[in-house]
Each structure stands twice: as structure tokens, then as C-alpha cells.
Amino acid sequence: MKKFNLMLILVALLVSNPITTKAQTNPNTHAIKLAHKLIKQKHFAGTITLVKNGQIIAQISNGYQNYQTKVKNTATTPYMIGSVSKAITAQLIALLAQNKKLALTDRLATYYPNLPGASKVTLAELLNHRSGLDTSYFSLHKHYDSYQTYLTDLVHQAKIDPQNINSWHYSSYNYNLLAGIITQVSGQSYATFLKQAITTPLGIHLDLMQATALKSYSYLRGGFFSQTDYNPYNNYGAGQVAMNGRDLYYLLAAFLQSKLLAPNLTATLYNKPPTAAFPYYSAGFYHLQSGVYHLHGTQLGDETSVTISPDGQQAVLVQSNVTAYTKGGVNYTFDLPLFAALNK
């Protein structure tokens, strides 16, 4: 009788804690245990997604998607992915190139003839933040009632610095302009073309410029303060996307595995010149010297950091909605050691 009762207790404990059960039976126990350890040590709030051989082996969540109502973060919580969404805009540009609607070698002046110096820059240079785009006099602290009014003001104030063409300079404005080109060439809104060309074919979901159940927070003097976006248009094409870990993984893997593009165009899009220094940025992805790809984005209180193999088979996705609370930060601090543990 005692043995029978003990067995029932053990079964109940296993069923009530599926993540622990997975860690005990999964060959990648070390990575899962390390994720739990980092979450506890660094006060992490969000979701960590671990992928091995193309399969999600664990999704571990902590903290709250709403601290006021105490609704917890879960595997299905959508997080703002910030600049990681640049990979989406790049893919849309490449899809238009594949359909002969434009070419990556097109000059920026084809689409923005009034932007000074635009005839000297290609779309590929915008994709890789090597356009020489100078926006030093442009202010984000204006109110815009539409993306088009924002874009018109950006083009009016921006210029191309010829001395910086083909030199690395990270600027989200490159992707704002690319989003505008997508609407010009497709004849559709960015959101409509995105749905038609990417999310529907892949069977995934994302929120674009819409309120989600998630709230983003800053952490100050022992309290959590909800954040709001003062200008919803200034990140269009370079942010404003919310996704859960599962859908984000399948999206990025699909890009790397040529699920939407011909393999030769995928290779062109993510090409790193042999002599280029590390890290090298191409179409949303950083090439690291270790041979893996990295993506990173912040928006409001959210932060997403991803390490993924070039074939999309191994990945760690770390998403947080209150990064100011996390000791030591999120970027590289979680994903790189977890990726190493996952692939031991």
C-alpha cells in the first residue's frame, strides 16, 4: 500500500510540472536546466524557446504579461520583436525581386527621386545598413497621423553622404524607406502584402501595430511601469511587430531554408563577403565569427535576442517584456550560452 501511494505521488508531481518532466527525459537536459538557472539568477521576465534539429524542445516562461492583473507570461505570449522585424522587411523586398518587380541593384532614386544622393545607393546597401543615409537633422519627436506623412518628412530631411556609402552605419531609417518601396511596388499596404506573401503561406501569426494582451514595462525603484509608444509610425518596416516564440522561430527558419525564396536568392540576400569583418549584418541577420547568426531587437520595454544556425535547425530565442528588470541584460547574455549548451 505504501509503495502504491508513493507511485501516485510521483506521477502527480510529474504531471503538474511538464517543463521539469521534459528536462528530465530530454537529451538536452543541460540547456533546459541552464535556462531555469539563468531565469532565476538574472530575474528574467519573458519566454525562452529552445530548438534542436528543427523541433521546439522547450519553452520556458517567467514573470507577467500584465503585472496589474497578474496574468503570467506563457509560450503563446506575443512579444514586440523590434529590429528583428527588419528580417521580415528584407524578405518582402527579396520576394518582390524574385517576382521581377524590382532588383536589389536598383538605385534608391528610382523610388525616392527627391532624396539628395539617392542615385548613388542600391537597395542592397539599404538592406545591409551601408547606404550612407544621413538623418542627423530628423526628429522622432513629432506627431504623425499616418506612415505616409512620416515617410514624406523623412525623405524631405534625409540625404545620402557619399563618403559613407558601403560603410557600416546602423539606422532603422534604411528600413523605413524599404517599407515605403514595398508599398510603392506591390500596390498594397505593407500589412496586406506581408499577410499575402509571408504569414498566410507559412501559416503563422503576428500582430502589426495592434494592441496585444502583453504589456511592456520599465522597472524603476522597485516598481513596474507600463510603457506606451508615443509614435506608432516611426518604426514601420523596422519594428511594430509582436510574435510568440513558436511563430518567430518558424518565420526565421523559413527565411533561412528558402521556404519562400529560391535558394540562390536566399544566398544573395544573406551573403557575407569573405573579407568582411565580423559581426557582419545582412538583411536582418548578424553573422558571428563562431559561424552562427544573431538577431536582436528592442522596442519599449521589450527585447528579443536570437541565436540561430544558418540552416535554421538549431536556435535559441529569448523574449522579454521588462528587460530593465533583467540583471546583466538580455542580448547575448542568455542566447549564446544556451545555444552552446544546446549543441554540446
From TrEMBL:
Annotated GO CC locations: membrane
Subcellular localization(s) per the UniProt record: Membrane
Pfam families to which the protein is assigned, alphabetical: Beta-lactamase
Primary localization class, coarse: membrane
Beta-lactamase-related domain segment(s): 38-323
Keywords: Membrane, Signal
Signal sequence segment: 1-23
InterPro entries: AmpC-like, Beta-lactam-related, Beta-lactam/transpept-like
Top-level taxon in the UniProt lineage: Bacteria
PANTHER family: D-ALANYL-D-ALANINE-CARBOXYPEPTIDASE/ENDOPEPTIDASE AMPH, PENICILLIN-BINDING PROTEIN 4
Protein name according to UniProt: Penicillin-binding protein (Beta-lactamase class C)
